[in-house]
């Protein structure tokens, strides 16, 4: 079979592989995808369920807001070491056991963190809250790394990006529910300033991100233009990020901020599942769990560093502000931090566009008549379960 110029198999070549090898797919692959998506959805909801009502939780348990914020940050911190373990579990033990362990960690963490609410007289509620969140944080790496593995094992090549998108986007949908339900379910005597409008912006960011990911994944599944989609998406995200840095410093621009948050989700969030598939393509024959896992772990580590850096650059506003914090102090000035974030986003996008060029190694291997993925994989690496694309 002759490859197109540039070494990248086109959609016509890759779609002919199923007929050539007489691959068989199983309808239960959608059930597995649904289970994984629900698990990722619930894990994300547990992650940020405290964040929209941090003031009320802190007041109820006599804790500081900083302690409550650590209930969200622990996900970022724990994902770095646990991500390395999750890579090994997915590629060595298998997807089935990774999903089972993730489900039990998620369950145990959710039960553990509810004890301070259900049992009175607990002396140190923060220990139970943090313990439960930490168990859920350990489960996050397993469930976030799994969509790429599931798509590779159970879905044909013309459905991989779509399957990866469904599994990946279920996580931000859980964040959406947490941002909407927490303020609605937890009441307070006085209104919370600006709630989380900020929650509306977060909802728009996620909804438009899911819609964009759906359209982009269907397009990439047909065209195989992984690199082009990622580069264009990051460039558009950089432009919107610059606009956010400028408009966020102005007062009375609520509609503009809502529109910018929508565009950030549409261009930035939508690229996430495509970037995961691109990582698998360019790193083949490295396992899907390792490829997606390394991207996630490095991204989390970078996120922690950027959060620390941006927070360190904030200062107290010299002029009077229209809002105050819980402790009566004026809010922080994030102008320098936002401009730096926009600059970093633009710089990284330029590097991606100029220097990232890669062949699609997995598609090339599947298009080669002398090599098939199944011939190169031992039983231990296919989870000891039937492959949806088993040769006759």
CATH homologous superfamily - what is it? MFS general substrate transporter like domains
Total domains:
1
Helix-strand category: mainly alpha
How do the strands of the widest beta sheet line up side by side? 1-2
Can you tell me the CATH class? Mainly Alpha
CATH fold name: Growth Hormone, Chain: A
Q: Roughly how many Å is the radius of gyration?
A: 22 Å
Biggest pleated-sheet summary: 2 strands, antiparallel
C-alpha termini separation: 20 Å
Shape: globular
Low-confidence stretches: 1-6, 17-21, 189-193, 371-392
Helix content: 55-70%
Counted beta strands: 2
Quaternary status of these chains?
A: single chain
Mean pLDDT: 78
What's the order of the H and E elements? HHHHHHHHHHHHHEEHH
Total DSSP helices: 15
Q: Into which percentage range does the β-strand content fall?
A: under 5%
CATH architecture: Up-down Bundle
List keywords for this structure.
392 residues, 2 strands, globular, Growth Hormone, Chain: A, 1% strand, disordered N terminus, mainly alpha, two-stranded antiparallel ribbon
Topology overview:
Elements: H1 11-15, H2 17-21, H3 29-48, H4 54-61, H5 65-93, H6 95-118, H7 125-154, H8 160-185, H9 198-223, H10 226-247, H11 254-267, H12 272-283, H13 288-312, E1 315-316, E2 332-333, H14 335-355, H15 361-367
